[in-house]
Amino acid sequence: MDVLIVGAGAMGRWFGRTVDADLAFADADPESAVAAADALGGRAVPLDGDERFDVVCLAVPMRLAADAVAGNAHRADAAMCDVTGAMEPPVAAMRDHLPDRERLSLHPLFAPHNAPGNVAAVADEPGAYTDALLSDLDAAGNRVFETTPEEHDAAMETVQAAAHAAVLSFGLAADDVREEFATPISAALDELVASVAGGTPRVYADIQSSFGEGTDRVADAARELAAADDEAFDDLYRRVSRGDSGVAAGADRVADDRSRDRDQTDKHDPVE
Questions:
Q1: What is the dihedral of CA 194, 16, 26, 152, to 10 degrees?
Q2: Which of 50, 98, 216, 217 has the least CB density, counted as fewest CB within 10 Å?
Q3: 141 has a pLDDT exceeding 50
């Protein structure tokens, strides 16, 4: 299987390291394509070329995903996939431009240096090539799970846009205080701020632009808390503590998943 990866950044390189294929890279910065090809044993090709490949994988910023599908559909002999981070726009574009070819949308829910991890997948038109890609992801230790474009993009409003907005808002609102004043909660938030602020602003801006309703909900919730009297605050607090909010329910699900993982690990641990 030969694969063209359009986008030679961190996510494109992650995909190239993860799949078993003959690789080619194309990028708006030709030097980045050469560097990625040299690092992973592939080759660099022109971004606007016409050479065809079994699979074309798009690893471009999510705001460019739909245009990248249109611009590279003619290069995909059998299949196209993307790792752009949004799903509704690229899946819709692939349906339009590749109606008779295999289509797969993937979202690794981690930074490449934290691989492996959870990977959301929409096998919109599965086949032998997309099955092979999914098998490679699984073999690399990732947990691949099925979703729909609509479910995925709605979830990103919470797990990305709202989460990032909450963390960055704390970073903007917090005063510089002596380390001795830190509480376990404030220290944990400081670590989250450092993690988010250590990324690339354009990536986070794209997330806010694509899934901004989550950010609006954070702003609305902060205003509601700020305006609440004692009785209203008590009600809001108890909504979270009872699990009536999505965050609390999600935390319960994560705890349950971790408990099940520990149970499965215990079942497979060798007896000392």
A1: -60
A2: 50
A3: yes
